[in-house]
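ok so I'm stuck.
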Amino acid sequence: MAVEIERKFLVADVGWRSATRDRRDIADYLIARFEKESGKARLRICNGEAMLTIKGPRRGIKRNEIHVSLTDSDARSMIDEFVLAPPLRKTRHEVEFDGFVWQVDEYLGYLEGLVTCEIELPSEDSLFAKPPWLGREVTADTRFRATALTTLAEDGDRIAIRDLIKQTQSVQV
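replied:
not stuck anymore, here's the structure
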């Protein structure tokens, strides 16, 4: 089983765009939540390939996860049978900065205007330089977790979504 060590931030400006080395279109479907949002099962469609990911409870910035490739047929069946809410749709941009790859996510649809980024680290105490376009850290802010964003969509809470996006657009480092 793999271990994910990750920190999440808001994005303060578009300075990252010129350093983008790759981009992918992603649709994330939540299929299960475990123990009050401490874990989840997600089905991801990324550039036509399907992957089931099960993530365990967070322990600080670390959690266990497992990835299983799916056939298109199995993915479609699982979406039809198990999906709990509308998918999170986003374009993920890979941006290199000072020896690390940052994943900048531009959300689409009901979350359009929300831009976050993540960095995966080799250890919990890894040091890294912060790019000039980086906003405040939201790793521990449950409002920015995929399960919370999915819940907003599931509830159709357009006011909460608009307010969340408005807060991020005036983000300061």
